[in-house]
DNA sequence: TTCCCGGCGAGACGTCTCGTCTCGTACGCT
DNA sequence: AGCGTACGAGACGAGACGTCTCGCCGGGAA
């Protein structure tokens, strides 16, 4: 069970070049933002990074995997620059509706920002088709974000603002699902007003039973 | 404004070979189901269909566009075989919750069926990244389906089962968004129980105000 | 310090698919 | 009957894929 996979001899990660790793991330992010994901090639990333192609193929299985790691690295560094690890936690002012609207509005703004929209779309699309990558995408990017909602909703339950019998996970999907639906399928424009209406309608269903 | 696009001389659609068109659809669907979307190539479709590559390039801009048309053609033929054009309308037994659960359970079953899952995933993913194709995907496949929900919800409003001030469009997205979210991102399993819980929670928010 | 192992940059290599193009053929209007 | 155009077939160059083979270099072991 624990034998090395017969596919290939695994490289020695302890001898890995941190310098090349970072150069690859920088090149990948730059190329995607400049020319778009579809036109970005592994050969192009290698050339831009001043790196041999084999160095990429040795450590990543696909272009999408490189970009995902680059994206995660970027997020981790930005996160770290802000200090604490609770940076993205949803605020708790005591007003659940206001707190959720604040976060959903910010999410709407991100989705309307090409710098965020383009690479995230590309990763999401790739993850939809490639289960392996999709699992990593979901686990590393999506789920942590969803956790913020779970905790905020649980706090609201403790405060008596939400029916204690409601499933926080289901509640969160009612907020995030419609937003992603509009975003990914471009059915209707994403606005702050939409975020507000969404929160209001969902919270009506979550109100404690009279 | 109405001059022919300088890109290319448009082919004469009236002389188009119906035989080749059908052969291309059949080959595309067969190859996608046999070897998967990613491994399906335009050259492969042409060979399988006994058709010149140019015949495909003359009428479609991309592999995804071919598959979308093939899918629509398949759906149209299956639809026609069933008779009426109201075939997929959501039933109205007077019990809104039961009717919605029936439809959402059927949707869950489709999403769990590889024969439906694989090509739909591929098309959705392609549409997410390619706005042109995404618009056609949304318009031809997604929106008609959403219309069924709108009409059923409006009927419920007329019957007094749903708050008349609620926006049917928003209500529908509360049902469909979370389902698609779980489906596309594979966060948690899609079950009939989930569909039921979803309907119950959403309808709580849609109940007429006391 | 010396030695040596393995990742490194570089790029050649064969393969594959792309999208364009150019044949000669065959089909459907006029 | 003749004419035009889509058709089947496939050659073609471009470009990216993923593998490979070079020396080179750097760091842990002797």
TrEMBL record, chains A, B:
Boundaries of every HTH tetR-type domain copy: 18-78
UniProt keyword Zinc-finger present: no
PROSITE patterns: HTH_TETR_2 (PS50977)
Stored InterPro entries: Homeodomain-like_sf, HTH-type_TetR-like_transc_reg, HTH_TetR, Tet_transcr_reg_TetR-rel_C_sf, TetR_C
Key word Transit peptide present: no
Keywords: DNA-binding, Transcription, Transcription regulation
Highest taxon in the source lineage: Bacteria
DNA-binding region: 41-60
Gene3D superfamilies noted in UniProt: Homeodomain-like, Tetracycline Repressor, domain 2
Alphabetical list of PANTHER family matching this protein: HTH-TYPE TRANSCRIPTIONAL REGULATOR RUTR, TETR-FAMILY TRANSCRIPTIONAL REGULATOR
Protein's name in the database: TetR family transcriptional regulator
Lineage, opening ranks: Bacteria, Bacillati, Actinomycetota, Actinomycetes, Kitasatosporales
């Amino acid at each position: 069970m624990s034998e090395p996979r017969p596919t290939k001899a695994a490289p020695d990660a302890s001898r890995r070049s941190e310098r090349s790793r970072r150069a690859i991330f920088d090149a990948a992010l730059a190329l995607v933002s400049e020319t778009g994901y579809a036109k970005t090639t592994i050969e192009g990333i290698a050339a831009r990074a001043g790196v041999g192609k084999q160095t990429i193929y040795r450590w990543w299985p696909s272009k999408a995997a490189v970009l995902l790691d680059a994206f995660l690295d970027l997020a981790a560094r930005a996160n770290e620059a802000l200090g604490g690890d609770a940076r993205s936690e949803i605020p708790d002012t005591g007003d659940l509706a206001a707190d959720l609207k604040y976060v959903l509005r910010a999410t709407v703004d991100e989705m309307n920002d090409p710098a965020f929209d383009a690479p995230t779309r590309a990763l999401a699309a790739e993850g939809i088709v490639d289960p392996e990558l999709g699992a990593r995408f979901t686990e590393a990017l999506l789920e942590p974000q969803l956790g913020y909602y779970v905790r905020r909703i649980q706090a609201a339950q403790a405060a008596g603002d939400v029916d204690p019998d409601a499933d926080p996970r289901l509640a969160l999907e009612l907020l995030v699902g419609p937003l992603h639906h509009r975003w990914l399928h471009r059915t209707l424009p994403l606005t702050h007003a939409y975020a507000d209406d969404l929160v209001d309608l969902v919270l009506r269903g979550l109100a404690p039973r009279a």
